[in-house]
Specification:
Blueprint (H helix, E strand, L loop, with lengths): L1 E5 L4 H11 L5 E6 L2 H4 L6 E5 L5 H7 L5 E4 L6 H11 L4 E4 L25 H11 L5 E6 L1 E3 L7 E4 L8 E3 H13 L7 E6 L4
Parallel strand pairs: 1-2, 1-4, 2-3, 4-5, 5-6, 6-10, 7-9
Antiparallel strand pairs: 8-10
Length: 198
C-alpha cells in the first residue's frame, strides 16, 4: 500500500512515519519542506522536499498514492486543503484539532474554541474546505498531544461535546492505522479523539 504523509517532519508526522515503517506492507512518501534533510530514500521511503502550498509539486508527489495523511498545521493549511481537493486523492485522512467547531465545554477547554482562539481559524477553514468537497476523507480532531495509552480515548462526532482537550499520540496513531487498514471506516466523518477529562 502506498501512503503519503504530509508534514512528515513535524512532531506527530515523524512519530507516525516511524509507526508506519514498522509494517513492511507500506510504501511511504514523506513530504515536507525539509523531508530530504530528515529522511533518506530507500526501497520503502521516498522523501519529497516540497512546499505543499505548491499545487503542481504536491500533485506530482501524490501520484499513485492509496492514502494521504495530512499532519500539517499552521496558517497555510487552508491553501493546502484547497490543493488536496483539486488533486482528489483516493483516500484522505486530514488532521484538524479539537475546538474548531466551538465544541469544547466551559471548564473543559472552551478557551481553545475557535471563537476564543484566533489561531484555530486556519484549521477550521481548512476542515470546512475538505468537508465541502467530494473527497473520501476522514477528519481527525485530536487535542493537545501527550504520550500515553493507545486505548485512553473517547471518540465523539462533529456536533458532540468532547470529553476533554488532550489526546495521546498512541490513540491517534491507533485510529489512523485502523482507517488505513479499513478505508471505509469513518469515511466522510469528522471525529474527535480525546482523553476523558470529565
Amino acid at each position: 500500500m502506498n501512503i503519503a504523509i504530509l508534514g512528515a517532519t513535524g512532531n506527530f508526522g515523524r512519530l507516525f512515519t516511524a509507526k508506519l515503517l514498522a509494517n513492511p506492507n507500506y510504501q511511504l512518501t514523506v513530504i515536507s519542506k525539509s523531508a530530504g534533510n530528515i529522511f533518506e530514500d530507500s526501497h520503502r521511503v521516498t522523501a519529497k522536499s516540497i512546499d505543499a502550498t505548491n499545487l503542481k509539486e504536491l500533485k506530482n508527489a501524490l501520484k499513485n498514492q492509496d492514502i494521504v495523511y495530512s499532519a500539517i498545521s499552521g496558517s497555510d493549511l487552508p491553501v493546502i486543503a484547497r490543493n488536496l481537493v483539486e488533486i482528489n486523492p483516493k483516500r484522505l485522512i486530514f488532521m484538524g484539532v479539537v475546538g474548531i467547531h466551538n465544541e469544547l465545554a466551559e471548564g473543559n477547554g472552551a478557551e481553545f474554541n475557535v471563537d476564543n482562539e484566533p489561531k484555530q481559524i486556519p484549521n477550521r477553514n481548512a476542515v470546512d474546505t475538505i468537508e465541502d468537497s467530494q473527497l473520501d476523507y476522514t477528519i481527525l480532531r485530536p487535542g493537545f498531544l501527550r504520550y500515553g495509552e493507545e486505548d485512553d480515548y473517547i471518540i465523539t462526532s462533529k456536533g458532540e461535546t468532547p470529553k476533554g482537550y488532550f489526546s495521546t499520540v498512541e490513540s491517534v496513531e491507533k485510529i489512523a492505522l485502523e482507517i488505513i487498514e479499513n478505508p471505509k471506516l469513518y469515511s466522510r466523518e469528522n471525529i474527535s479523539i480525546t482523553k476523558d477529562m470529565s
